[in-house]
Amino acid sequence: MADDLRDWFRLWLTPGVGPVVGGKLIHHFGTPAAALAAPYSELRAVGVPEETARAIVGQASEAAVERQLAALERSGGCVLTLADTAYPALLRAIPDPPLLLFVRGNLADAVAQPCLAIVGSRSCSTYGRNAANRLARDLASRGVTIVSGLARGIDTAAHEAALDAGGRTIAVLGTGLDDTYPRENAKLADRIAETGALVTEFPFEKPPAPQNFPYRNRVIAGLCLGVLVVEAAEQSGSLITARLALEQGREVFAVPGNITSGKSIGTNRLIQDGAKLVMDWQDVVAEFSYDLRQRLRTGQPAATPQESHLPFDLGEDEQCILALVGFDQPVYVDGLIVQSGLGQPRTMAALLNLTLRGLLRELPGKCYVRAWNG
C-alpha cells in the first residue's frame, strides 16, 4: 500500500477534518503528507480550528488506518482520493467534495455517461413509483446513468428500472461500503455493482444514521448534471437534494403530482419555485447541451471525457484543467484557478491552448465547457 494513500487515510480519519477543512488543507499544502507535517501555527494561520489543528499535529491512530485499509481489501472495492484522475469531475467541482470516495463496481463507465439523479419519497404512491419507473427506464435506455440513494420507494424504483432497461445506475450510500441500508436492497446493490457502482464517503463499519443522509445527498447531486424529484412531501429529504443541486449550480426537475395528496406538496412547490416541470424523458434532455440532446435523441453513444481522443502532447497544466471541465456544466475561470492550484497566469495560458485546440469552448461570462470530439 503506497504511503501516499496511507497519508490520505491519516488526514481523513483525523477528528475535525471533514470535506471543507480537508479541501482547504489540500488546496493550501498540496498533499496530505505536507498537511500532516505542518506545524500547529501554520495550520491555524490557514484557518483550521484549534482542536482540529491539535488533532492533525497528533495524527490519527495508526490502528484506525490499518482497520480501514484491511476492510477496504476485504470489500473487493477501491478508493479514489480527491487527487485521482478517475475521481468524478462533476463531484470534484462542488464546494465540499469528499476527500475519499469508496467504490464497488465500475464507476468510471457509469460517470462516462451523462448522470441524472432521480430521488423522492420512501413511502411513495403507486403514481410516484410508476413515474420513477418510466422516467428512469426511458432515460437509462438512451444512455443516461441514473443516480439515487438505494432507499425504499422512489430510489429503489429508479435503480431497478435503469437496470431492467439495460442501463447503468449509481447508488450513493449513507453507510460504509460494507453495509447495505435498507437490508432488503442487498440483492439490488449487488445488481447495481455489476454494471454501475456503489459509492460512499463514509468509513467502513459506519451504520446508517439521520445525520449521514444530507452528506450522501450532496454527493448524489454532485455526481449529476441535474436532480429530478419525482414525489416528495413537504418535509421530504429529497428536497434537501434539490436545494443542494441548486447550490452546486445543477438543474432541478420535478414531476407534478396530485394537489390533494400530501405526498406531492414538495414537488409541486418546487415547480412553483421554478423547477423544470417533467412529464417525460424529453423534458429532462431539453435542458442538456445541444450536442448531448442530439446524441440521446438519436440513440448515439454519449461522447465522454474518457472516450475523447485527446492529443498525447498536452502539457501537465492543460491535462489538469481539462480534467476539471465537463461537457454540460460550465466552469468559471475563478473556480478553475482555485481548483487547479495553478494560479491565474498558468490557468489562463492552459485555457487558451485548450480552446485553440478545440478541446474547450468559451461561453459568455468567462466560463468554459468541454467541446465534443467526433
Automatic annotation (TrEMBL):
The organism's superkingdom is given as: Bacteria
Name the InterPro entries on file.
DprA, DprA_WH, DrpA_SLOG, RuvA_2-like, WH-like_DNA-bd_sf
GO biological process entries: DNA-mediated transformation
Q: Where is the DprA winged helix domain?
A: 310-366
User: What range(s) does the Smf/DprA SLOG domain occupy?
Assistant: 79-288
Family of the protein in this entry: Belongs to the DprA/Smf family.
Please give the name of this protein. Answer: DNA protecting protein DprA
- Organism, per UniProt? Chloracidobacterium thermophilum (strain B)
